[in-house]
Amino acid sequence: MNLPWHSSAHKKINKMIDHNRLPHALLITGVQKIGKFDFAQSLIQKLLCKESSCGKCSVCLSLTKDEPNANLEHGVLIRRSHYPNLIYCRAELNDSGSMSKDIRVDQVRAFCESLGKTAESLQIGIIFYADQMNINAANGLLKTLEEPRKNTLIILLAHHVRSLPQTVLSRCQTIHINHTYEQESADWLSKNIDKDSRDDFDTLQLLESSHGIPYKALEDLKGDFFFQYQNWQNLLLEIAISPTKIYDTEIFDGNEIRVLKCLQQLINEGIKIKILNHEGANLELNKVVERTSSNYLFNLQDDINSAISMSQTTVNMKLLLDNVLIIWSHISHLKKYPAITNIQEN
Ligand SMILES: [Zn+2]
After folding, report:
1. In which residue ranges of the chain is pLDDT below 50?
2. Residue 297 to residue 308: CA distance in whole angstroms
């Protein structure tokens, strides 16, 4: 099944296949839940099925039975796939029964060893997620990445490219799966939303609130996140219109980062409205944007990006959000854009 937001990634890979330039090592990147695994599965199907992913032949049928995410007690799944030359490597359960955060060097060694065996037909090794490999494990993979056996494809899936060492990156060709805000993805969402859930919402907006990750949108909808998000958005807009609303923000407590992301989305949307010079669907946002200088929107966008990137540090997020909200509450009548000290210093 090709997901609509994977189409440009598919185009890229098809081009490689058509020109016989499929690399030995392929790195598939994209945020969590963007469907990297689905993409890898459909690529494997494309490579193995003789009838271009027919979905009916024995290869296609056996591939759909593969559930490498099950059987969690094994870190390297050798010959466990329904296609005998498919080898998976991933983090395993540790002794305390929880999922290990690392992929260790002995796992990678076992993985490489299995791939080193001669095989008549195409061998495919998948590591998920490659950014979980510790440094020894990553080093252990280098030789195999450099000199793979003939007829072998290694696929690495990774959420965060920056967590991968340069030595690994430079040996792979990368295919990135982007966030999606397209109508086709919204249509896919409409088709995949549970029929029993509420249907009085706009799927494009739902996609936006889930940061362009359709699978996350489906998940958000199961909880009350989407409705909570709408409440945050409404309050944020009220604050920009009547600044005294800044004293009624208890619904933000404990959700500082997600509220910052919600505001980030509003500002991004606002900047789009300014640049395209036409009104958006959100009347309140139009009102705020109309009265605000685009420079201030860009300034605030920068500050919010910095604030979000600081969420991993020990910074006091509540204080940071309060500071951002003070600027936001005055955004349409600022004389000069103020500096947020604890953001600028970092
Ligand atoms: Zn087939």
Report:
1. 344-346
2. 16
